Amino acid sequence: MEKDLTVGNPQTVLWKFCLPLFGSIVFQQLYNIADSLVAGKFVGENALAAVGNSYEITLIFIAFAFGCNIGCSVIVSQLFGAKRIADMKTAVHTALIASAVVCAVLMAVGLAFGTDLLRAINTPEEVMADSALYLDIYVYGLPFVFFYNVATGIFSALGDSKTPFIFLACSSTSNILVDILFVTAFDMGVAGVAWATFLCQGVSCVLAVLVVFWRLRRIPAEEKARAFSLSLFKKFAVIAVPSILQQSFISIGNILIQGVINGFGTGVMAGYSAAVKLNNLVITSFTTLGNGISNYAAQNMGANKLYRIPEGFRAGLRLVWALCVPLVLLYFFAGRYLIGFFIDEPTETAVTTGVQFLRILSPFYFIVSSKLVADGVLRGTSLMGKFMAATFTDLILRVVLAYVLSGAMRSALGIWCAWPIGWSIATCLSHYFYFHGPWRGVKAPEEGITSPS
Asked: How far apart are CA 195 and CA 77, in angstroms?
């Protein structure tokens, strides 16, 4: 069901739109958590390390899919807010074609150089075979990842956050069951974990794309949509490329950090693999809520209602901080039990590593979540240069400090300390850009006076 985010109380509208998005990303992360959980519990600690090791490289591929999602979502949101329906449909077709080309290139690169990437991050020989196998199967499923991401971006642009939630709830639950079936009943090991994800993502992708086209046909347009538009492709690229670069460099940074972590042994690798999945669940959830705020800001920008953007920003802060409270308490005080879910008979090194990681990072969720809300507004209003500046500040600081502090402390503790420092400084930058945005000083029209369109 389409939802106009330019009318109604901003907090009510935004919360109703974003809460299903939060549920969706929880289920999306269950894909990766399920892989690690089943690998660690039913195969062994080395299998968990292999899945976690490959995961850092799959994040590069996800970065491109995420960029296509954001590029499509922001442009479609702006056109939907401006009620330019034919152009909106053309933008959808253009985004799908562009995403298909990007996906094909990445598949070729992944299949040709996957093992080289694993060696580049110092993957230990005892987990190399399983890491390479998991990565290859993941690459085969990239079309599902890409087209599903574009489909969910379209749903969000139309103000519909409930349909993706339903798809993900069903497919991620199925993924857990199929993971266990393939690993325990069929004794497929790490390959079973990968093929289960491939199968469940494929089904959800096909269904999502079919529903998108059915939904678009139901929206009347003033003229026939075109199959491709170069001008809309350029607008798509202006949003998508910086988003891809953001996520890609974050992934590359994580790979560099993974290389440092790998030097501390399999126990630290396993503990980090479990803890970083829990951390990514939270950060990705906040990022997705930031994406929802991007849709809100984009629709209101398209409708020339800039005065509603600060109200949405404040509502977004209240939402993410309300979620931070239980998550911080859970991770800080129950980290040992959460790590135990991922590893059967874990070593003390693995548990200590995971708990230490969560206790250092979790209190700073209040800070990084506010950054991601501000970033959502910057991205939704196409202020991509400022968005990129804040993002790269965070990334560069975290990578450099991970090397410096781990060397100075001679332990992985230095790596974990790099996260809060990078988050804090980049948050100040994001907030500075937000508070100096074009909506600054824009007042709502007086009651009874229609705002310009």
From this structure: 34
Contact 247, 62 (CB under 8 A): yes
Q: What b/e readout covers 300-329, taking b as 16+ CB neighbours within 10 angstroms?
A: bbbbebbbbbbbbbebbbebbeebbeebbe
Whether residue 152 is predicted with pLDDT greater than 90 in this model: the reply is no
DSSP string covering 336-374 = HHHHHTT-SS--HHHHHHHHHHHHHHGGGHHHHHHHHHH
Is residue 220 exposed (0-12), middle (13-18) or buried (19+ Cβ within 10 Å)? exposed
- Residue 36's contacts (CB-CB under 8 Å, 6 or more residues apart) are 48, 51, 52, 55, 273, 274, 277, 342
**Radius of gyration, alpha carbons of the chain:** 21
Q: What is the pTM of this model?
A: 0.76
Q: Which helix (H) or strand (E) holds 63?
A: helix 45-81
**Rounded to whole angstroms, how far apart are CA atoms 33 and 273?**
10
**Residues 189, 54: contact at Cβ < 8 Å?**
no
Q: Of 319, 317, 283, 237, which is closest to residue 395 (Cα–Cα)?
A: 283
DSSP type of residue 5:
T
CA count, 13 A, side-chain hemisphere, 331: 27
Q: Is pLDDT above 80 for 122?
A: no
The answer to whether the beta carbons of residues 281 and 33 sit under 8 Å apart is: yes
Torsion of CA 233, 241, 435, 82, to 10 degrees: 20
pLDDT digits (tens, 9 = 90+) for 33-65: 666 667 776 676 677 777 777 876 887 888 899
Helix (H) or strand (E) segment spanning residue 217: helix 189-217
Share of the chain above pLDDT 70, in %: 93
Residue 409 carries which side chain, given as an amino acid letter?
M
CB burial of residue 158 (10 Å; 0-12, 13-18, 19+): buried
Q: Which of 314, 287, 247, 254 is nearest to 375 (CA)?
A: 287
Lowest mean pLDDT among 32-46, 100-114, 124-138, 170-184: 32-46
Q: For the segment 346-368, what is each residue's pLDDT rounded down to a tens digit?
A: 788 889 999 999 999 999 999 99
